[in-house]
Records
---
Amino acid sequence: MTEAVLFDLDGTLADTSGDLAAATCDALAAVGLPSPEPHTLHAYGSRGGRGMLRAGWSGDLDDALFQRAFTVFLERYALRMYESTVLFDGVGACLEQLARGGRRWGIVTNKRERYTRPLVKHLGFQPEVLVCGDMVPQSKPAPDSLLAAAAALGHAPAECVYVGDDGKDVIAAAAAGMTSVAALYGYSVRLNHPGLKGADAEIGTLRALPSVLKDLAQRKS
């Protein structure tokens, strides 16, 4: 039986793409580069600040210029990360059903801790465990953060399911020995990310997760 469900944050529980895109455009403009329309960057929300900057500017960025832009991105995102971020449909209902079923849950994200903790609090989440990308030696697609979360909950990896919207989430879950569920409503599906096809199951909304967990349990029994 699945004892714990771990979730990615950006693109899985919360749609943070608007604020990430706005900070990206601010950063590019600050270093003298043209900024794209913010909505064109939303699909890259799971790639973090560095990935968003690369998506926003297709030309060459030397290391010094890129670092300047990234520094501004971090500053601007800290100021803007509550402006348009919202929960995806079905988050509340899903977490309530997990609690009623006695399943524990947590968040495992590549986002830095300094941004994740205040955002999680702002969104009203109370996960039993929270592991961020800068809290472990290697972030996803390495399994370190998923294994750390399972250990913190006192569960074997095989007792955990990881839900994420990016190919690196599927890879990390497999490396950790966890079952993976691809969130097809998230960002990477818009880019036809091939890594999602390797997931053990798929959902089009978090409302479907409880029934998918039952199906996965039946497969294992």
---
Amino acid sequence: MHTFGCPADVDALEAIARRAGIPLVFDAATCWGINYRDRPLLSYGDASTLSLHAMKLTHSVEGGAVMSTVHPIAERVRRLRNFGISADGAHPAGTNARMSELHAAVGAVVLSEADAEIARRIRLRDLYRDALRHLDWLHLVPFRAGAWPNVATMAVRLADDAPVGASTLCAELLRYGVHARAYFTGQYRPRELTTVGSTPMADDLGKRIVCLPFWGGLTDLDVARVADAVDRIGQHGPAREPVRASRVAR
């Protein structure tokens, strides 16, 4: 999984997949427009899945896509999405996963604006970096060397000695009208999912990573307001009374 659009260790994962003789499929839901080692991040592995949900940089309101350079995989996906029907006849496995004309039309319009949206997000990331630079308890989640641009999310990581945790920071930001999100906290772990051993690092990071509002429509003032709210929460802790503020959403 390329979490927050940051490339996973593709070399290590490809080596594991080759040794095991299994396909390597990446969850690349947020990776449109991101390159790694001078090629699209979506081109790694045997296939990558892309989200086209409305909250993503490139979307069609809802839906998804599978990217693959492996011909048999691509053909199988095409058949599965079309009731199992292909040029050589019908197959038992299949469903109706074709995109509607309406969703395709929206996707085409959004795609035409993708480069401009990426440029806006690059600028916004620089604004956030400068506005949050003075905080020693909060840092931008690092991006893997060789990957560019980091335009999927505005993820920040809280230090071990941060005055608040991820869930509390999100709740307090909401008092200021700022909608942030703490991903991968305990609520995202299915209770019925069994793992081999414990996952202390993942559990710890889930309590310390927050995604701040990040989309091309944000203004310089919006970024300044978000940074100011984060700073105030760090200095004063949870507010005792509601804070009057206009809304800054994702």
---
Amino acid sequence: MFRWNKQLSELTEEIGKLQESNVSLSNQVKIVQNKLDSRDDNESIDDRIVVLQENLKKSYADTLKDVVTTNVVKLNDEVINDCFQALKKEMIETKEAVSVEFKNVQKTLVEASEVKEKERNIMLFRLSEHGDDKKRIIQIFKHLTDDAVNDKDVIKILRLGKKKENSNRPLLIKMDNIKIKALIMSNLSRLKLLNNEFGNISLSHDLTKDQRIELKSLVDEARKQEAASGDFLFRVRGPPGRWKIMKLPMVKK
């Protein structure tokens, strides 16, 4: 806008100069006419002066027209170019915003699909690799659920990672439905009542990367609150994605 105002100011200045030139020329014509008034061939001289004046007016009008046209065209070209550049910039920004939004939606869909795929899974850690995995897993689950689990409830068992000496790979266990999994996970406190063979095992949900990050953050916060309190226990409880930090009374020995 500042540039356009500047150009209009320059145009006005040029028009002013042309007007001054026209006044000067008109004055000169009048002087010539006064000097020639006393001559006998006034009619011929007058005709010439009239022609001269008309030519001057025409020349001035044409010059003014050219100046105005040139500047207006130049101004219009710059306005159009500025509008085009602004529109181009807006289109690029819109395209980038849509691209980012599309990637976010795509990421959300992938995460939702991954969560859905893992929601029936249970992770079991530190179970010895010597023996029948499924038989021992069913035994553990029956203990936790008062025999509510049977062989059909466990549809897949998989050891994760490469086998190593003196190391027990974690087990991925896929249950038939979420309900039976929830029953197992709600009774984890019974693990401590198992015999020595299963004394060191632990169970957890099969979490996505984002869920593990979220859980770790909540556990760290619970530890801070517990350290600051001194009189209460703070534990993270709830299903994946809906965890909460619970304040529990500390059991005094």
---
Amino acid sequence: MFLPLSQSSRDRHPQHLAEVVATSTTEFLAQCLEPDNLDFPLMPAFGSWVKSQQDENSDVIAYGVVYHATTAPIDSVHRAVALGLSLQELREQQPQIFAMLRSEIKVVLLGFSSVGNIYQHLPSQPPQIHQAVYGCEESEIENFTEELNFLRTLVQMTNAPVDELIAAVLRNVYQVRKCDRNWLVQAGRKLSILLKDDYDRLGAILGQVHPFG
């Protein structure tokens, strides 16, 4: 399966959210794409599922979740300053500001698909720089989360608010699965093992899983 590439913002695939700008074995950094109008880029939510093709000639699609997001000036020397203006006033009086900012997301890789099969371990290579990043369809999230081995990768992370991230990912999947309580129970059991029966921590994570955003 090849993901569609579309450069024009008007013709862009509706799930085309970002572009890979840095990559490593376990994660990648992506810059969110600029909208047509004077506004900030659409930034995927914390814990949301995204995908990216390994390279333009590969059928490997890497899957991961957003664990960090930033919006900052493109110029690293000068910080943004408070102007006391509404968003509409910024559009009218300081429209250049929108071109001076960039929004970026960090994505931890949880697995990949190849020729119709899903694997919950790292791909042999991460997505290449400049590969498109797409939001996952609900059917893809459901298929990927039939198995729960990806939770081990999240539990072992050291560079993220792990418990909040796990809760956000579970909440996202729970909502996609139309509040499938049986799936949530299985996820809770898997987490209990991974957390070595730390029930206080487990309870705090599962307490954040609910049917709403």
